[in-house]
Amino acid sequence: MSILEELNWRGLVADCTDGAGLRKRLVSPTVVYCGFDPTADSLHAGNLVPLLALRRFQLLGHHPIAVAGGATGLIGDPSGKSQERQLITTEALEHNIARVRIQLARLLDFETRENPARLVDNSAWTQNVFYLDFLRDIGKHFSVNQMVAKESVRARMEDRESGISYTEFSYMLLQAFDFMVLARDYQCELQIGGSDQWGNITAGLDLCRRKLAKAVFGLTLPLLTNADGTKFGKTEAGAVWLDPKRTSPYRFYQFWINSDDRDVIRRLKYFTFLSSDEIGALEKQHAENPGARHAHRALAKALSDLIHGSAVTAEAIRASEILFGGRLEGIAESTFDEIVGEAPTKEIEKSKLDGAGLPLVELLVHAGLSASKGQARKDIQGGGVNVNNIREASETRSVTSNDLLFGKHVLLRKGKKNYVVVTAR
RNA sequence: GGUAGGUUACCCAAGUGGCCAACGGGGGCAGACUGUAAAUCUGCUGGCUUACGCCUUCGAUGGUUCGAAUCCAUCACCUACCA
């Protein structure tokens, strides 16, 4: 199967330039690139679509290049942003790139002999460029009229409150410059990115044609949306990160398990490497018995395996089974220990639970499950609070050392999904 | 620069002297039903308090009044029309 067929059946092609020409070109191995802006020290779920697309290219024999935006990250892409960005420091940027590099290495194969992935930092070819040279060599090929017409720029220019700085306005030129350098020095012929990157990608196409007289291609991937209209990759706790320090493997697993029914098949196509047959089978199972959620489980396991490895995934699955499995009575300490550290954990001084103990409302606030003591009382009155998986109806209840499981832990739950293990020390 | 209107809780928005911690909608949280869904229904949604109640909040500051989101003054910001 060709890469285009692969991307097409997965629904991963939003748009591409010169479809016929691209199809012809992709018959033989091609160098393809995608940029990642290191705005944080970890990638998040939203970055996965283009990143996994690179991997798909690699699996089918093409040469992927991941570009860490050391230079462009200093500027900030206005695409999809309604407000001017805060500039980040050079030191923070370098730290971010180093961290992101490690994550990239897990998903792309840098070792294979045939078509190893490469990671390059665009500051390598940008930092020594003089401003006047850049204006003369690159800037001359751009028409401000066209740049202004670009959706992301126009939206910001029309918004009198935020506006757009010259800095961000120039972003497009830098990304076009990247493509040109990669086309010239790395024989790169294709750039992929989210559909919000269309303008930036085509700008690079134009520059390559004018500077190098070289025809290159662009392909955009659909921006992911949720069936309920919310933004993909966000939870109440914020973005879903790949870094286990930011998003625990348990939460990561839960994020995918909680996919909306209407989204789950699409997500399987977008995010997993399961074959068309396998996904078809899951789709059939899902249609026949959605309650069993085979598709959700397959999705969550596949992603967790990919990002965190199968050993860690097994723990996350086990923790999920325990937490959502009902009563804790008779549970073995070793089993319970599996969820400690998986679910969010808070510590408390053991002495506070001596004697009369600590009011449950205070413990709820301490654990971060309720915003205030008043709110905690309302949560209890509403029947939403469980202690050690048993519903607690009394708002005057205190938690004492008698409530400790194995002399150490108290399992608090608010609602169906919000767990915190409080550990006494 | 002139004129008119506006600024209320997470967002939108009602309230034009006491009945206002402030109608309604959205969002959020929780409950029922379920499958850790969706849809639907119910409750909650400033803080402290077991509770009575107390405290803080309607752009900012000051004033009038027994009493101010509401009236007055000044300032800041926004919107529309005119220049």
Q: What's the layout of helices and strands?
A:
Layout (H helix, E strand, L loop, with lengths): L2 H7 L5 E2 L2 H7 L5 E6 L11 H12 L3 E6 L3 H4 L14 H18 L10 E4 L1 H4 L4 H7 L6 H6 L1 H8 L7 H4 L1 H15 L2 E7 L3 H15 L4 E5 L12 E2 L2 E2 L9 H9 L3 H11 L4 H13 L5 H15 L1 H14 L9 H7 L5 E4 L9 E2 H8 L5 H9 L3 E3 L2 E2 L6 E2 L9 E6 L3 E7 L1
Parallel strand pairs: 2-3, 2-5, 3-4, 5-6, 9-15
Antiparallel strand pairs: 1-6, 7-8, 10-13, 11-12, 11-14, 14-15
Helix pairs in contact: 11-12, 13-16, 13-17, 14-16, 16-17, 17-18, 19-20
The structure holds one RNA strand of 83 nucleotides.
Q: And the CATH topology of the largest domain?
A: Rossmann fold
Number of helices: 20
Strand order of the biggest β-sheet: 1-6-5-2-3-4
Provide the β-strand percentage band.
5-15%
| Biggest sheet features | 6 strands, mixed
Categorize the overall geometry: elongated
Please name the fourth-level CATH homologous superfamily of the largest domain.
HUPs
Roughly how many Å apart are the termini?
A: 57 Å
Question: Cα-atom Rg, whole angstroms?
Answer: 25 Å
Unreliable stretches (pLDDT < 50, length at least 5) are none
CATH architecture of the largest domain: 3-Layer(aba) Sandwich
CATH class of the largest domain: Alpha Beta
Number of domains: 3
| Number of β-strand runs | 15
Structural class call reads alpha/beta
Helix proportion range: 40-55%
Mean pLDDT: 88
